[in-house]
Amino acid sequence: xxxxxxxxxxxxxxxxxxxxxxxxxxxxxxxxxxxxxxxxxxxxxxxxxxxxxxxxxxxxxxxxxxxxxxxxxxxxxxxxxxxxxxxxxxxxxxxxxxxxxxxxxxxxx
Amino acid sequence: xxxxxxxxxxxxxxxxxxxxxxxxxxxxxxxxxxxxxxxxxxxxxxxxxxxxxxxxxxxxxxxxxxxxxxxxxxxxxxxxxxxxxxxxxxxxxxxxxxxxxxxxxxxxx
DNA sequence: TATATTTATTGCAATATTACGATTAAAGAA
DNA sequence: TTCTTTAATCGTAATATTGCAATAAATATA
Lengths: 109, 109
Prior knowledge:
The structure is a homodimer. Chain A is α+β, with helices and mostly antiparallel strands. Chain A has helices spanning 11-22, 26-38, 43-50, 54-67, 85-99; strands at 41-42, 70-75, 78-83. Chain A has one domain: Winged helix-like DNA-binding domain superfamily/Winged helix DNA-binding domain (Arc Repressor Mutant, subunit A, Orthogonal Bundle). Helices cover 57% and strands 13% of the residues of chain A. Chain A has a three-stranded antiparallel beta sheet with strand order 1-3-2. In chain A, helix 1 (11-22) crosses helix 5 and helix 3 packs across helix 4 (54-67). The longest helix of chain A has 15 residues, at 85-99.
């Protein structure tokens, strides 16, 4: 069946997994790191920087944009992509809540 | 062609994406949260708790185990799964390094 | 207008993931 | 040994993801 049963999970669990899925490909990790590093970017740069074909990069950018983690401003014939700082902060809060769970000392194993 | 080109990315980028992929399904998020909550678990509990079939849960557990995020001890006919706290801490360090990138104020957009 | 540049979209092939029924394996109980 | 319980594995169908060539769209420039 191959289809994730999102309806049986909480909103928080679905949120965590949606963000995590976005980070679940090294190209998207690399894109985000590059955007953080140079703090402004056009797609062409990324194609050279990352080494995947232009349509592939464009597709990854679209996913990140749909999720709201990046935004793109048109600048002439190119597009200036950058981190959506507000949404990045919100995402971080969701992920940290998940990652920072308390580990009780009395562990069974 | 459906195959991720891991070889063109850094170890760190591949590490982040590998961990993120594990969290990229709500069932695995739910499993981990449940393990944190009750701090010991058998697979049967999870099947009831989460509402997916036993083979499906077993498959998700296997992925988490392979990644080293959980460990399982045999206890009679059942298996006691729990968080691998050491590895969880290591994973957290990798993820935090990625999530906590500095956002410069002079953003282009 | 015609041309060049840059990014998005389409279409498709290859691979990966998700889910579960059926079965197997392992260990305790009768 | 046989039965029961619990979890893993196998096999398979459905769906999702990845990657790119070809093409389209949008805008700047000659």
